[in-house]
Amino acid sequence: xxxxxNKRFKQFTRGLYAAALYVPEGGYQWRDDLVPAPEEQSxxxxxxxxxxxxxxxxxxxxxxxxxxxxxxxxxDPGLHRTFARLDSSPDSIRSFAEKHGxxxxxxxxxxxxxxxxxxxxxxxxxxxxxxxxxxxxxWDHVRNRDTPALEPFITWExxxxxxxxxxxxxxxxxxxxxxxxxxxxxxxxxxxxxxxRPFRFFISQAINERxxxxxxxxxxxxxxxxxxxxxxxxxxxxLASLYVLFALEVxxxxxxxxxxxxxxxxxxxLTKRKEFCSDSCRVRYNEKGGPKNGR
Length: 295
Ligand SMILES: [Zn+2]
What we know:
The chain is an alpha+beta fold. Helices cover 33% and strands 20% of the residues. The protein has helices at residues 2-10, 79-84, 90-100, 122-143, 147-150, 185-189, 196-211, 238-250, 279-288; strands spanning 13-14, 17-18, 21-24, 28-31, 35-36, 49-52, 62-65, 107-110, 116-121, 154-157, 162-165, 180-181, 215-220, 230-235, 258-259, 266-267. The strands form 6 sheets. It has a 5-stranded antiparallel β-sheet. A hairpin with a 4-residue loop joins strand 10 and strand 11. The protein is globular and about 65 Å long. The protein binds zinc ion. Zinc ion binds next to loops.
């Protein structure tokens, strides 16, 4: 019945947004012995590769992940922050992938026998993580109006007014080259020397760019009543879903981040009562009787 389908589908939605993505049941593994398949040579990268365990030519049973599901379905409103602070260890990346799916673009890769697998390189994973991590960090500085943290990365020139956002190491990773804002209506609205507004603008541009072409409106036939159906904004990938969550945070549609009581890192709490960013922080706090490095 439509009603039951509707209800089930609601578990994949957050407000106007919906995402139902496939995660391979067979899981992922890291491999060094693969090379890009002939049709992928032009985009060749090098390993190690995080690939689906099941070859691409075999049936690959999948489960559905719902990166945008809301708090009423125990969704993580801060999944973009969870990914942004993922450590670089292959194990952490693999367990994130096995739970939520892949973030980096997938390629066809083949082993010495010519068996092909879907996968992405460690470098590709880290590039996406570093980009999101840098953007979240910049956003945190903007949100906290932390001028001193941003000041080293911006240069104002006058006559004509011009703003250069630095691609200084430590702030913007490669591929996130700093913007130059020339004299324009936007720059003229800013006070010369202002740091917050140019970076606020930069954040909007960066997130918009990553949603553009990857989040589209779609009519969903298994919603609505027998004839009419609902229209949702649908991201085409986990990466696009993470940027939707980030955009919802920047748009003020999420609970504000708070500091984890144990590790002190900022996270978006699932409920008002949540105090820890993760179960492991809650356990460690209770074992050690206090915050990390604290009394
Ligand atoms: Zn924590």
